[in-house]
Amino acid sequence: MVFRFTEDHDKELMREAIAQKPFAAKYGEAARIWASVAEHVSSAIKERVLEKQVRDRVRLLKRNWHAGELRSSLGSGIEETLEAVNEQSHYETLAELVGQYVQLENAAKDDKMDPINKKKADEASATRCASEIVNEALVRRALRQDDIDSDGDSSASDDTNYASSSKSTPSKAHGKRKSAFQLEAERQDKRIRDDMELRRLQFDRLMQAQLQQHQDRINLERAMHEHAVQMERTRALVQSQAEERMQRAQHESEERNRQLILE
Fold first, then answer.
1. Which of 25, 73, 79, 153 has its CB 3.0 to 4.6 Å from that of 29, i.e. a possible disulfide?
2. CA quadruple 39, 45, 49, 55: dihedral positive or negative?
3. What is the rounded distance in angstroms from the CA atom of residue 164 to the CA atom of residue 149?
């Protein structure tokens, strides 16, 4: 017989899911927690349910809850919060339980994303600070260059006997200083580009590692689910064979008793 969830079953399932918080499980532990949820729900409702059944049921209840929230907000024009529902109700409804679960799940996702977002913000801030420092250094260097050029021009106008020499010498020095300034600017620019490229590579490696961890977790959960399904099938087969043997033994016993009575 196909098992069907009732509203009371759904409430018990959501209470257990809220209590055990499978969405906050560490790497590789989600399947174990869902199996524990299924075990506790089975004990409470006196019906055996599997890990996949409770997981799919929670997913369906969440989807229905979101659809109901959307219809409610479109119908009234005002989105009713979970706190408002709790204040208006004196009993625990299925919608409230699902809403509470969704809130906890979203909060857990935000907590997991906070370190990543903070790291991105720190990297962007460090890049901006480096650029600002380089720009300030270039501006100061350019201002010093202007001051040196002004002093050179003043000295040249005071000494008329060495006018030609005074004009040619600052020109050569100015050319050397300009070349050094350009080299310094290019060096700073290259350092910034190299630093940004290094940060990009580090971020790409981090994202690749997180994607690999996510894929490994999915593979592990899939393998555990397949193992649980296989164990359930094996258990059902063993139980069926045991019942068949018992029926056969009972039939043989009845047949022997009938033969004894006839004799």
1. 25
2. negative
3. 16
Domain boundaries, the chain: 7-262
Read off the tokens for 21.
């918080």
CA distance 165 to 156: 9
Q: Is the pLDDT of residue 175 over 80?
A: no
pLDDT digits (tens, 9 = 90+) for 76-130: 554 444 444 444 444 478 889 999 999 999 998 888 877 776 777 777 766 666 6
DSSP state of 46: T
Q: Which amino acid is at 186?
A: E
Sequence-separated (6 or more) residues with CB below 8 Å from residue 92: 11
Longest dimension (CA), the chain: 153
| pLDDT computed for residue 18 by the predictor | 93
Q: Report long-range pairs for 209-214 (Cβ below 8 Å, ≥24 apart).
A: 213/27
3-class SS of residue 47: coil
Q: What is the DSSP string of 207-229?
A: HHHHHHHHHHHHHHHHHHHHHHH
Please write the tens of the pLDDT for every residue from 192-242.
999 999 999 999 999 989 889 888 889 898 888 888 888 888 888 998 898
Q: Are 85 and 100 in contact (CB under 8 A)?
A: no
The tokens of 174 are what? 């100015």
- Burial (CB < 10 A; 0-12, 13-18, 19+), residue 31, is buried
SS3 50: coil
Q: Helices in the chain by DSSP H: which ranges?
A: 7-20, 30-45, 51-76, 82-88, 94-158, 163-262
